[in-house]
Design a protein that fits this description.
- The protein is mainly alpha-helical.
- Helix content is 50%, strand content 6%.
């Protein structure tokens, strides 16, 4: 390299893809003589790694998925891949019927019995918090249902009109 010239920083994943394409081109060249040899990528690697932004995002996403998988195994005792299987079994939605939440933007929470630690299903954050704040007591929800069906204000107004 001439003095004063800057070295081209190339993403290590782009370089690996280039080398794979180069090998494929070399191996297949006799089949496709009109094929153009792949060119070295010129994406600058400004992200840690060193990776270009595209490959950094891909690697970061894979790292987050591995961390989530490890955490669900360690904390809740799920087998590898069991979170994804349960999510598919629930249709990708919260386990509470008629809940519109889907596990697309945010992952669904692993709902479990706090006394036994047994996993029950996957819930959206509001439903998971609601169950946790009710201390897993079904009578709280029966009381909420009764409250919604027959609010005290309506009962009071009906009592005033009957007098």
């Amino acid at each position: 390299m001439p003095p004063g010239a800057k070295a081209l920083k190339v993403c290590k994943d782009c370089l690996a893809e280039y080398q794979e394409a180069q090998d494929a081109w070399t191996n297949q060249h006799w089949i496709h003589p009109e094929a153009i040899e792949p060119k070295l990528p010129k994406r600058v690697a400004d992200k840690p790694g060193p990776r270009c932004a595209t490959h950094w995002r891909k690697a970061h996403k894979q790292q987050r998925e591995r961390a989530h998988e490890t955490r669900t195994q360690r904390v809740f005792g799920l087998e590898p891949g069991e979170y994804g299987t349960l999510l598919a079994y629930q249709g990708g939605t919260c386990a509470i019927p008629r809940c519109p939440a889907k596990g697309v933007v945010r992952r669904l929470a692993v709902d479990h019995n706090h006394a036994t630690g047994a996993v029950r299903g996957l819930l959206c954050s509001p439903h998971n918090r609601l169950i946790g704040q009710s201390f897993d007591d079904p009578q709280v929800f029966e009381g909420i249902a009764e409250y919604l069906r027959n609010p005290p204000y309506e009962r009071m107004r009906n009592a005033e009109h009957q007098e």
